[in-house]
Write a structure and sequence with these properties.
about 450 residues; alpha/beta; D-Amino Acid Oxidase, Chain A, domain 2; 8-stranded mixed sheet; 9 helices; 18 strands; about 20% strand; binds flavin-adenine dinucleotide
Length: about 450
Amino acid sequence: MTQFTPYWWQDQPQYRNTEAPPAKVDYVVVGAGFTGLSAALTLAEAGCQVIVLDSEAIGFGASTRNGGMLGSGHKMSVADAQKHYGPTIAAQLHCEANASLDFTKKLILNQNIDCDLHTCGRLRTAWTPQDYTAMAAANAGLQKIQPFAARMVPPDEMAEHIDTKLYFGGLLYKDHASVQPKKLHQGLLELALHAGVKVFGEQPVIAVKPQLNGFNIRTKGQNIHCQQVLMATNGYTQPSVSMFLAKRVMPVPSFIIVTEELGKNRVQALLPGGHCMVETRQRFCYYRATPCGKRIMFGSRAALHAITPQQALNSLTTKLTEVFPSLQNTKISHCWTGFTGFSFSKLPNIGCHNGIYHAMGYGGNGVAMAPYLGHKAALKMLHPEQQFSVFEQTPLQRRIYHHGSTWYMPAASAWYRTRDWWDNRQRTKALSALNQKSDSL
Ligand SMILES: Cc1cc2nc3c(=O)[nH]c(=O)nc-3n(C[C@H](O)[C@H](O)[C@H](O)COP(=O)(O)OP(=O)(O)OC[C@H]3O[C@@H](n4cnc5c(N)ncnc54)[C@H](O)[C@@H]3O)c2cc1C
């Protein structure tokens, strides 16, 4: 029987704090995911009194639901970054994407966080020959800005990395890694608690209102006075609490399944490279072995709007067997969903609106970026006059059709299906050209 909760939650501790939050504190962080906990840790280490409030059980959000793929990066190409922000900022965006990976890996290693960190590399697989060419050009451009460990994997080498005939080569990021996200979250939580942070679950923040010398934070049962607030709610931001942020960060769901135990040998035969895998197609799939090496975790955008994991299961298993036909009759042990926070600029942002700070908009690339920007947001709150990150210069944008609800997502899904159809035409053409070539040999 498939369980509709995250595989990562199985046999893991659940933190609960039965105390009531204090009536007065220096800093309140709203949201207890990677961003909120990392920010709180930095603030507490600077000697501040900090509490973190989450509306759900601690670890409810994307931070414990994700694929555990630890990588650098964001959703904007270097060409687009240069066009929108100019060459200097574009270069800084690339360098800070790399810095976020470095930061989170060092945090795990230096603090001995037990989260199954494995530098297995990530292979971005080309869905069309055009994707391969574009990736090669983008990689060459980025290497000139700041070299990093990545190389192209030509199509005839793909069998060494994956047992499928689907892709036209790929780009291998050698320093990218995998983690067990719930364990990483637990490790960050323990560090924050140890530094003196108080963390409260099931304490939804209902309103944040300016007050003399700070803010009044209204929760279900009480008012809390604080000097500063950080919104770390990302894909779970509610319009009723911050219309400003809800109008600028879209909640986009992602869906994951995990297979039953297949055995180490079978998983290794399917993924001989042992990497995390991410496709270039529009509604892309991402997959990896679980830390025990006996199962495959497989994620995709089954829909761009919220549907239940029960509704998503069929579409995910179809995609899994498209990649690995031999898994046709494999049972699925877990299936779940979670919300990523997408900004319209396609970049994360640290900012401050009406005195309320925020760090969010990671667009599905937050395992390294969220702890990093949580830390940077905390530094900004401590020293507002200084600049700590290029992501202070990537303001959250608005779109005329988005007022906080994603009514247009079914139409967006149809648009992406059309783009996939177009890419599939290019694939079919390329495949028939390849077949003709091999017939004539
Ligand atoms: C299915 C899935 C797969 C993903 N895979 C990857 C991956 O492999 N690699 C990668 O880099 N990234 C991935 N991501 C993205 C990554 O998980 C997120 O970017 C990151 O976890 C965001 O962390 P966060 O702390 O900002 O937000 P979250 O972890 O989502 O935390 C936000 C918290 O805010 C709380 N909250 C909201 N409103 C209130 C309120 N009013 N009062 C109190 N609390 C509130 C919520 O309950 C929630 O716990 C994935 C995301 C999903 C959903």
